[in-house]
Fold:
Amino acid sequence: MQELKRMYPAVPFSPPTQLAQPINEMATEIHVEDASDRVFPPGPCLATLGIDENGEVILYGAKVGNTLVDVQRGVRGEAKGWHAGTTIARYFSDIDQEAIQENIRRLHDDTTGHVEDDEIHATRTSVSAIDKSLKNHKKKADDMKRRLNDLTEEVEGLGGDCHPFTELDDIQICCGIFNNAGAGWQAYTFPRAFDGMPAVTIQLVTVEGIVMVNNVTRTGFQYQVRIATSGASQTSGNAVQIAYQAIYDGGVD
Structure:
């Protein structure tokens, strides 16, 4: 059997933190404001410095307090100096995607090269069942996409502070646009509670920057607007518009 490529753990919603101290391109220890397991999984694992295409992916070996140690620099992008306050997070990267695809290929090659006829039949039966399930999920996803498009048009037509909520089979969807309530962490409440904890995507509408999301529940979430300034990001209390989508799929175990 072919050896599989290493795949690194992830964290829900990829919450960012910031550098506590500046670093140069040779640094192998990186001090951050929050190195808890909520932000960074135990090492070894990947992390990304910066919030755009000029970022740098690193590989840290372990964590000691709020310090990432045994850091390999420039795993993707150029190793360079970064200011204190620079955003750093365990974002999903092309390295993660490549490992997944390559491991699937290797497992496929091993399976097709060594299974007996009865195993092939069983595999084909399983694949057929999976294919049928995928087609059903695709139809469901297409229906959901159409409904999301309708909701998006409704939001754009009505302007800010509108929050349509809809249900499609086991899926509950809510999206809308609202104004930033102030600097630092702010709370947003859904127009009605979901049956379970939804997945939330969020972005700024009127300015460039990022919106951090935290503490997602059935009834709402916390958010913080940060505007990029000279490679770092600062919290902002400007009354900018924020768009979000929240989706809960009750049919997923």
